[in-house]
Every structure is written in structure tokens, then in C-alpha cells.
Design brief:
This protein has about 525 residues and is of the alpha/beta class. The chain has helices at about 25-35, 60-65, 105-115, 120-135, 145-160, 195-200, 255-265, 310-315, 325-330, 340-345, 380-400, 425-430, 485-505, and strands spanning about 1-5, 10-15, 20, 40-45, 75, 80, 135-140, 165, 165-170, 205-210, 215-220, 225-235, 240-245, 250, 275-280, 280-290, 305, 320, 350-360, 365-370, 375-380, 405-410, 415, 440, 445, 470. Helix content is about 25%, strand content about 20%. Strands 6, 8, 16, 17, 18, 19, 22, 23 and 24 form a 9-stranded mixed β-sheet that branches. The longest helix has 20 residues, at about 380-400. It is globular and about 65 Å long.
């Protein structure tokens, strides 16, 4: 049963077996698996419930409806724009459906350096396969490669760099090019179209999903989580208390929201909550071609190059990805104002866009007290700044190799390259807080998973150190950035954690009392 905020007109007390906070890549899966095992579940989602029929494909409507803070979430002092979904289904509703398994090297680090049990590729394989089947992951076919993605293919082929098509969680994609605004056609197999839909249709009598309902605090006593205090936003902005008294609590709000909730609940006992955050910061590099590319027509992200990424090298680097955006979102990284900006946007149909996904160090942190509830502090390390610069140059090389007449960077000061001889401009402009516009859609870390309570927030199966029945499962438990689009990693971890909880529910672990 899905309950919208407007349908709540009084205070509510719920006593389910489990309370799951967050309905994205992790929360939806955990909710489904526990329901499949016969448990009652209350799922709390801060965002609204917006079925695909309401996804109008209009930027001015959907960004405010589906994105956290209407897309206005920035780091301090760097001003990196961090985009996250805030709706039933979470960021899976607004992402580009790109699916990478966690690189083996990363899983190896997590096992060897962070002492996480049963995380190696051979252990994770079955969880990836389970999720991939359920969300219909398949490789993009040649006929689905539009001109924007073909620029990446051609450029990498000419340079001799490793590249290939992405895998995506879609069925019969309509190639409308508006993945960032939801999926009107329901072909993107987000949590909204898969696990949430199944929960509602199959387990509607045992699961309640409260939309427009923000968790405010986790209550604890005697080494256990005893309740969750939440607030539902009813009609006319009226608020009603939703109190949940479950046997087990799973926090799956994502890096920022999960860290914020734990901090607000006074659960930072070892000082490790809300630290060691990574973002995959990504500057945009735009190629201007003589012919029309029409990158907005077709799949936005269908091709990538792993030449410099952990997938190929086994160490931190950067992933180069073809990407495109609808006009408003596309305009944000373009330099200039008024006339200059207008002149650049006139060439919109002639542009190809490459994003440089940086496999960054865990240098970010979260603190309470900001005007929007949290302060996300982040500053590129010196090494990452150098790596980002190199990534931008590599993206420019691809565009020139594919025939671009000029390349435009996302530096705030207009920076245009007319040949590889102009690459020095990227070095000279820099990537400091006032130098460049950078985006991120992949916040990770903050509640690190690890083998010891002294160095981590949760154990190898996401149980919060020091509390018997509190779990945290989402991208916030990543010990490091994964270096690729992270949704499949989150889903596989959630499948693994949910299986562990269900298997141990009544076997002496006392998760459920």
C-alpha cells in the first residue's frame, strides 16, 4: 500500500517487523526481500510518489518534482552541484540507467584493506546476476547508438583507446533522450517500475510505503533501535507525526540523508559518521561539430571509455562517458552570461558532450546546521585536481579525433580549444572552487563498512556497530568510491544484506528481538 502525504490526516503509530528509510536502489530491494520472507514492513520516503504517467518530460516541472532541493544541492567551498533523486524510487528514477558491476580491483581493496567479509567478486557474482535479471540489464545495441555516443566510439577507435557500449536497465527503450526527467514510457526499469511496483501489487497488505514522509530521528535504548520518528507532509502543508516501532531498522537514504539522520539521532559514537565522502566529480567537455549531432535525440549515455579507469588499470583514474542533457541542464556548465551564453547555446544541436568521472579520494564530510539541513564540505585533493585536468584533456582528444571544430570546457571563464595545441589552457584555468563548474550524481561514503568498530560505522553486512538491530545499506557504506556508475553496486549490496538479515532473523542474532 502506497500512502501519499495528502492522505495522512492524523498522527500515526505503526508496529511492523521492519522499518526501511529510503526507497531508492537499496531501500526498495530490502523492502521487497523482507516482504517476500513474510515480514511486515513500513517504508518511509521523504519524496513524493509520482507514477510514470505524471513524468511530463518538461524540465521546469520534473526537476522540482523529482530532484532533491529541486536540483539545488552544492558542496562547500567548491560549489559542485550534487544531483539526487527525491521521490519514490530515488535516484533510479532520474539516472541514465547505466549499469556497471563493481570493478574487481575495488572489491579486492574492500576485502584486503577494509577487512570486509565475503565481498570478493566470486561472492558478489550471484547478487549481481539476481539484480540484473530483475531490472532487465542488457548491453546497448549498435542501432541504439546515436551521433553523440558515436562521437565517443569514433574518437576512441582513432586513438586506439579501450571503449565500448554501456549496459542499461531498460526494456524496449523508446530512446526519447530524457532519462534525467523520469521515464514516461516505463521502459527504464527503475525501482519505481520493478521492486516498488511488485511490493505494492504483491505485498500491499503487509507493506506500507509512506511517501512525503521524512524520518527525523532514530530512537535507541539498551543497545537497540526502538523506534523511528517521522513527519508526513499532509494537505495544505500540515504536518502529522508518523511513529514507527519496528523490530529492526534499515537506513537507506543515501550518503547525505543517511549520514544526516544518524547525526541527528546522536549515533556518531566513534566519530566516523558523515566522513570519508566521495562524489565522482565530473566536469563537462563539449565538442562543437560542423554537422548536427542532435545529442538530445536518443539514449543519452550509451558509450564509455575505460582506457584510464580502474576497470582497465586496476588503480584509481577516471572513466570517460558520453552523455547529453536537455537544454536547461545542458546550459549550466556552459561559461558566460547573457549574450555569450546565448551564443553558445545556439550551437546546441551541434554539440557532443563527454563527462569525466573522477575516481576521487574520500575527502568530503557532512555536518549539521546548514540552511537546507546539512553542509557537505568537499575540496579536491592536489592529486585529484591533477587527475581531473588529465581527464579533461583526454576527453578533448576524443572530440578532436572524432572531428570537432572546437572544444569548450566547463571553466567559468570562457575556454575554447581549437586544436590540441590549446590544451595548455586547461592547465592554466585550473579546477579550483572559483575556476570551473563541476557536477556529481554519485555521492558515496559517509558511513563506511569495515571489519572493526574502531575504523568503521557498520560491519561487513551493514549492521551498525553497537546496536543489535540497526542497519545502514546504501552508497554511504562504500569504503571508497567505486569508479563507475554505482547503482548496480548498491543494488547488489542491498540484495546481499537483505538475504543476510532474513537468514539470521530468528537464528540467535537477535536482530528482531
Amino acid at each position: 500500500m502506497i500512502i501519499k502525504g495528502k492522505d495522512v490526516n492524523r498522527s500515526v503509530l505503526e508496529t511492523p517487523d521492519a522499518c526501511v528509510i529510503g526507497s531508492g536502489a537499496a531501500g526498495a530491494i530490502i523492502c521487497w526481500q523482507l516482504a517476500e520472507k513474510g515480514h511486515t514492513v513500513v517504508l518511509l520516503e521523504k519524496g513524493g510518489y509520482h507514477q510514470r504517467e505524471t513524468h511530463t518530460q518538461k524540465e521546469d516541472e520534473m526537476i522540482s518534482l523529482l530532484y532533491k532541493n529541486s536540483g539545488l544541492q552544492f558542496t562547500i567551498p567548491t560549489g559542485i552541484a550534487v544531483a539526487q533523486g527525491s521521490c519514490v524510487g530515488g535516484s533510479t528514477v532520474v539516472n541514465d540507467a547505466v549499469c556497471f558491476r563493481t570493478p574487481p580491483a575495488v572489491l579486492g581493496w574492500w576485502h584486503d584493506d577494509y577487512k570486509i567479509e565475503d565481498i570478493e567478486p566470486e561472492h558478489m557474482k550471484k547478487y549481481f546476476e539476481t539484480v540484473e535479471r530483475r531490472i532487465s540489464v542488457s548491453e546497448v545495441q549498435p542501432y541504439e547508438i546515436n551521433k553523440n555516443n558515436d562521437v565517443m566510439r569514433k574518437g576512441c577507435k582513432k586513438l586506439g583507446w579501450e571503449a565500448g557500449p554501456n549496459s542499461r536497465n531498460c526494456k524496449n527503450c523508446k530512446q526519447c533522450g530524457l532519462c534525467h526527467l523520469g521515464c514516461y514510457y516505463g521502459t527504464k526499469q527503475s525501482m519505481l517500475e520493478t521492486y516498488i511496483k511488485d511490493v505494492d501489487e504483491i505485498h500491499g497488505n503487509s507493506v506500507k510505503i509512506y511517501a512525503d514522509c521524512r524520518a527525523e530521528r532514530i530512537e535507541t535504548s539498551g543497545g537497540r533501535a526502538t523506534g523511528v520518528k517521522a513527519v508526513a507532509n499532509g494537505e495544505n502543508s500540515e504536518e502529522f507525526d508518523v511513529n514507527v516501532k519496528p523490530k529492526i531498522v534499515i537506513v537507506s537514504g543515501g550518503t547525505i540523508a543517511s549520514s544526516e539522520l544518524l547525526l541527528k539521532s546522536g549515533l556518531n559514537r566513534n566519530g566516523k559518521v558523515g566522513v570519508n565522502i566521495t562524489l565522482h566529480p565530473s566536469p563537462a567537455i563539449i565538442g562543437d561539430f560542423e554537422e548536427e549531432i542532435n545529442g538530445h535525440q536518443g539514449i543519452p549515455m550509451a558509450y564509455h571509455s575505460s582506457e584510464f579507469s580502474v576497470q582497465k588499470t586496476g588503480k584509481r583514474g577516471y572513466l570517460l562517458e558520453s552523455v547529453f542533457l536537455a537544454p536547461y541542464q545542458f546550459s549550466l556548465p556552459l561559461p558566460g552570461f547573457q549574450y555569450d551564453h546565448k551564443e553558445l547555446m545556439k550551437r546546441y544541436n551541434h554539440y557532443a558532450l563527454i563527462g569525466t568521472l573522477l575516481h576521487d579520494e574520500p575527502v568530503g564530510s557532512i555536518a549539521l546546521g546548514g540552511p537546507l539541513g546539512t553542509i557537505l564540505s568537499y575540496q579536491l585533493s592536489q592529486g585529484d585536481a591533477k587527475m581531473m585536468t588529465e581527464g579533461m584533456k583526454s576527453a578533448a582528444k576524443i572530440l578532436f579525433a572524432a572531428g570537432a571544430q572546437r572544444v569548450i570546457t566547463s571553466h567559468r571563464k570562457r575556454t575554447v580549444l581549437y586544436s590540441e595545441d590549446d590544451m595548455h589552457l586547461i592547465d592554466e584555468r585550473g579546477v579550483g572552487p572559483t575556476d570551473i563548474s563541476i557536477g556529481s550524481g554519485h555521492p558515496q561514503g559517509g558511513n563506511q563498512m569495515g571489519g572493526t568498530p574502531e575504523s568503521s560505522v557498520v560491519d561487513s553486512y551493514s549492521k551498525f556497530h553497537g546496536l543489535q538491530n540497526l542497519f545502514v545499506c546504501d552508497a554511504s557504506v562504500f569504503p571508497t568510491a567505486v569508479g563507475v556508475n554505482p547503482q548496480l553496486t548498491v543494488m547488489a549490496l542491498a540484495t546481499r544484506v537483505a538475504e543476510h538479515i532474513a537468514d539470521n532473523w530468528n537464528q540467535g542474532k537477535r536482530y528482531a528481538g
